Amino acid sequence: MNHIYLDNSATTQVCREAAEKALELMTQQYGNPSSLHALGFGAEQELSAARRVVADALQAKPEEILFTSGGTEANNLAIFGAIEAKKRFGKHIVTTQIEHPSVLGCMAQLEKQGYLVTYLEPDVQGKISAEQVADAIDPETILVSIMLVNNEVGTILPVEAAAKAIARKKAPALLHVDAVQGFGKLSIQPKRTRIDLLSVSGHKLHGPKGVGALYVADGVRILPRAFGGGQEKGLRPGTEALPLIGAFGAAVRALPRPEEGLAAIQDLADYCREKLERLPGVVINSPADGLPYLIHFSTHSVRSETMLHFLSAKGIFVSSGSACSKAKASHVLTAMKLPRAGIHTALRISFSRWNQRSDIDELIAALQEGMETLAKGAL
Length: 379
Fold this sequence. Notes:
This protein has helices at 16-27, 38-57, 71-86, 101-112, 130-136, 159-168, 190-193, 242-254, 258-277, 304-313, 331-335, 340-344, 357-373, and strands spanning 4-5, 65-68, 92-96, 116-120, 141-147, 174-178, 197-201, 212-216, 283-284, 294-298, 316-317, 346-350. The two termini are 32 Å apart. The chain is an alpha/beta fold. The strands form 3 sheets. It has a 7-stranded mixed sheet, with helices on both faces. A 3-stranded antiparallel sheet has the order 9-10-12. Helix content is 40%, strand content 14%.
């Protein structure tokens, strides 16, 4: 049975270029980048090449890119590393209620250590205003951590406004941005936007799982969380996972330019929204000006898990929320104050450059069938 994959915000199919590069680096250029012989030197060149590719995508310098095991580690290193470096200046942190669990988990630990965390509340579309961010920052704010794109509803958050507010209020804060859902889809220029720390991940853009990167702007000091052989400027020590890193670089190199990819996906998203709005009872929770790569909606009739498995049996794969939340009620939708029926019947579809309108047609037909035939149950 052919399948239709519409869960690209959870993970993506590895592209051919990335898979071939990983195989090459596991079977041919397999040296340790720290070794001094020819095979090690070749591996080091591959590592440097991948670093340049990721840096170029961010219009950054290669030395500003540190490779990690993924977005979660990058977020942890950025947050705890920044706090350790800045703790003498204050104990206040600003973030939002709709961050990824890898950020909120860090905040919970920091609160246990006595830090004061301000959690900005979204509106009903998951939006955080520039005024909210500015009002929350004070002279003792040492970190602002705000995602670029929300991973459940696609809201684009006011990152640039946060940078301006930090400067205007003369706060000692570093600005950390979780850009995992936006990297490769939006044009991101951390230097121009005055972002200090920025996290990205490989498996959201057709690279392998287990690799990501942290941008650390020139002149920004963070402290390490692990200690060892000094790789990655001593901030992420340990032998680099070169096959994954090289594949990550290959996947980034294979991406279309963000504006080109965005135009094609916007057309697909508009088509999908139009079809969804014709289904009785369906409410789209994603804002119209959010990232078009994902659309979040509620059927208000069939529970999420029931519909998800119904679609899966037909070879159509979607999500009932963040893949990192498993079966828990979405903290994002709860913060948005969606009604109970909206939360418990919510689904997220997310696109890649390989999706087509025919995928949407099959999804809509299956959704309509499911809404007409499945047991509604208590919501």
